[in-house]
Amino acid sequence: MPDENSVALVTGASAGLGAEFCRQLASCCDVIIAVARRGERLLGLADELAGTAEVHCLEADLASIEGVALVLEAMRQKGPVRFLVNNAGVGSLGAFVDSAIDSQRAMVSLHIDASISLCRAAIPFMQAAGGGSIINVSSLGSLVISKDIAVYGATKAFLNYFSEALHAELSSSGIEVQALCPGFTHTEFHDAFGEAFDRERIPETLWMTAEAVVAESLTALGSGQVMVVPGEDNREIARSGLQRQLASLQ
Ligand SMILES: NC(=O)c1ccc[n+]([C@@H]2O[C@H](COP(=O)([O-])OP(=O)(O)OC[C@H]3O[C@@H](n4cnc5c(N)ncnc54)[C@H](OP(=O)(O)O)[C@@H]3O)[C@@H](O)[C@H]2O)c1
User: CB atoms < 10 A from the CB of 167, how many?
Assistant: First the structure.
């Protein structure tokens, strides 16, 4: 966990895992910069956490260059950020060939361009401060190759590689990097899929709460573990997925 008196920046803080990261980090961070497009949701979170942490609400669309620039400026003004959670994300379900390419490209910008930009800006401050933690929220879907999530899964696989390589580059400077790979988690994430996604088809045992996912992520900090798959059932699925990929090389 980060030291007291530290600043956290959490993207996608208006719902789900991002809001929960803010709640759990509030006990050990004085200041939280909470970023998302829905400003009224962020204000609600700031009210909820009043008295525990100072929440700076920042409305920004991280799929746009302008939105990323706003966050970089906030980081410069309110930082140094000791704790960066690149969590904002959207899903996509369906055959790539039928997808709207603009929305796929926007997802690439959100998951990849925004995450690397915020890391690039935060790391020099973390180095100067002698340490810091970066959590890039990936997905179990990046470890189990599936149809209908081609670009989504690929952006998350990017974050896995990026996090592993960055962790190796930075380990001597006291900065740790985690790629958090949640499985099915009760948030608003699947709402956008409408009837294309049937929650009932997923066994109840595979669903986790945002509280449990975030708690596993924060508990793993300091362990040196980069890839964090919360939940034993999910870890078993991840192992099988990776074994299938390895077997295809033989
Ligand atoms: N839930 C799952 O089952 C699951 C599984 C694996 C991985 N994940 C990953 O977990 C992360 C968090 O998702 P969640 O489950 O918490 O979903 P969620 O409840 O839908 O929350 C997504 C968050 O991302 C923000 N966001 C989306 N597009 C944005 C944009 N263009 N600019 C800024 N913020 C944006 C949303 O805020 P606004 O709409 O207000 O902008 C919201 O705060 C995502 O990266 C997702 O890929 C989720």
Answer: 19
Judge whether 71 and 62 are in contact, CB under 8 Å. Answer: yes
Indicate the burial class of 204 (C-beta count within 10 angstroms; 0-12, 13-18, 19 or more): exposed
Tokens of 171: 């380990």
Spell out the domains of the chain, with CATH numbers in brackets. 6-247 (3.40.50.720)
In this structure, the residues whose C-beta lies within 6 A of any atom of ligand 1 are 11-18, 36-38, 41, 61-63, 87-90, 110, 137, 139, 182, 184-185, 187-189
User: Would you say the pTM of this structure is higher than 0.90?
Assistant: yes
Please calculate the CA angle 149-85-73 and round it to the nearest 5 degrees: 110
Give the count of alpha carbons within 13 A of 144, CB side only: 15
Neighbours of 117 (CB within 10 A): 18
Across the chain, which has 250 residues, the per-10-residue mean pLDDT values are: 74 98 96 98 98 97 98 93 97 96 98 98 95 98 95 98 98 96 97 89 94 98 97 96 88
